[in-house]
Amino acid sequence: MQFRDFLKDYLTFSKKERNGVFILAILIIALIFYLFTAPLFIHNGKTDFTETKRQISLLASAKKETHDTSEHDVPAYDYLEKKEQAVFPPFDPNTINREGWRKMGISGKLANAILNYRAKGGKFRKKEDLKKIYTLDEKTYDALERYICIQEDPRKIPEKSILQSSAYRKKTSPEIIELNRADSAGLIALKGIGPYYAGKIIRYREQLGGYVATKQLLELYKMQDSTYLKIQDRISADTLLIRKLNLNIATAEELALHPYIRKNLARVIVNYRNQHGPFKNPEELANIRSINQELYIRIRPYILIQ
User: Fold this and answer.
1) Fewest Cβ atoms closer than 10 Å to its Cβ: which of 87, 186, 231, 242?
2) Where on the phi/psi map is residue 9: left (φ > 0), alpha (ψ -120 to 50), or beta?
3) β-bridge mates for residue 177, sequence order
């Protein structure tokens, strides 16, 4: 009887205990049901991390580049000041590559900005266009400006335009013909001056002893004002090349060969010299009555006193 009582004490449940056992049984059944049915609802496929890995790789590369440029790049304006100017040859920002920028101390970030600008169709047509790059500061531009040399693409210039440009430069920068050195070929190159006038210009130059002013060409026989106006901007006269007459030793025959003196005046000058002695200065010619002020001014560049 004692064993039965013992079992009764341990196996007999109160109402609360029976409720607890009932709830526990339900939980166990639910757990067993979940274990058998869960595989039907859970997707066992593998997750694709390719894109994530790619983004991580890009970030790592960017970080490495930033690290490299931050450690080794020096602002261009600072870098260039420490180098001789001859170290850097002229460069065209439209063609220089990344390595070229790096050799001039340009940071990878700035070089990338310039290369991206070009890749999108951007073109530097003049030096100042480089300022369009927003990451380029004023000091760096000032350091680079002296080396910028933008080349014109000859493929984009029509042949006609090239010829016109050459003709324009030739027209605006004509060769100046120096009258006291020019030969016939040089004079014939002047508009309106043919072989006839070229010969007359040279002969008159020899008679005068050289031209002191280009307007002396108007003294030539049949030289038109209109012809002179066409060539006046293309001729000059070097007065250092003038051949002068020494009034104290020149004979009347020698003086008479000069177009401004001729035979009669030459005789008067020699007679004055014989009467008053050697000329002390050129101004004494003004004492001769037949020599007026205008004639004296024309003769003065061609005489000397020794």
Assistant:
1) 87
2) alpha
3) 235
As for how many domains the chain has, the answer is 3
What's the full length of the chain, in residues?
306
For β-strands 235-236 and 177-178, DSSP reports them as: parallel
Under 8 Å between Cβ of 130 and 136:
yes
Domain boundary among 240, 271, 290: 240
Q: What is the dihedral of CA 226, 227, 233, 237, to 10 degrees?
A: -120
The two beta strands, 245-246 and 303-304, are parallel
Helices (H), the chain: 2-11, 15-41, 50-72, 76-81, 98-103, 108-119, 138-145, 159-172, 184-188, 195-208, 225-231, 252-256, 262-276, 293-299
pTM of the predicted structure, to 2 decimals: 0.45
Domain finish residue from 173, 204, 225: 173
Give the residue carrying structure tokens 């008067």.
268
Q: What is the pLDDT of residues 66-101, one digit of tens each?
A: 444 444 445 555 555 554 443 556 788 888 888 888
